Here is the input.
Amino acid sequence: MFYTALIFGLLGSFHCVGMCGPIAFLLPLDRQSKSKRIFQVVSYHAGRLTSYAILGFLLGWIGSGLSLFGIQQYLSIAVGVLMITVVVMPSAVMQRFSITKPIYHLIAKVKSSLGANLKKRDPGTFYTIGFLNGWLPCGLVYMAIFGAMATGISWEGGFYMILFGLGTIPLMTTAIYLGNFINAKVKTKILKVIPIVVVIVGILFVLRGLGLGIPYVSPAFEVSQPLVSAQNSCH
Here is the structure.
């Protein structure tokens, strides 16, 4: 399912430019030195990828804990259903259950720190900006970390999120260099495609959880030996 992370990143980067574009536009890049500018942009992306990897690792770890109870396939189905629900549910209803509300003060501190770093030009500034940027609330990132959780393995969750981040780099880099270059009509059309992609990926996660024996799409789940032994001991 790793390819779904790249799909999220590549198509979702249009959403990222809309949400994080203002930060990208305000990056204090060195306009005199091309080599320094490249290093600064790479540092910014490295910071974002670090945040995504940490999020993915943590959610993958949570998923691995659930897998120990033999419910990994149910987790995959739940994640898929949740993705689809988020898209089809009216936004007014979803706002009542905003997961950012309990951590509002933390987000405020991240934004404050982000604003302070945008005024600096220290060597580590761009990595810090990217790292903080990765923790800002974003619906698309939420969808990606649900996918990371469904992997059921810590390192796979981290890798899933890194792939997601890599998918956003081409368009985000273009935004950094060229500014708000996307035609409004084109952007609107592309943003309409993103919910469709989320639903398709959600369906793929549901199929994966069903274990229908379809290679790469819905592989059959194997019952682990310890679980089988435990069941046998009960009879």
In short: Confidence is low (pLDDT under 50) at residues 223-235. The radius of gyration is 20 Å. Residues 2-233 form one domain. The chain has ten helices and no strands.
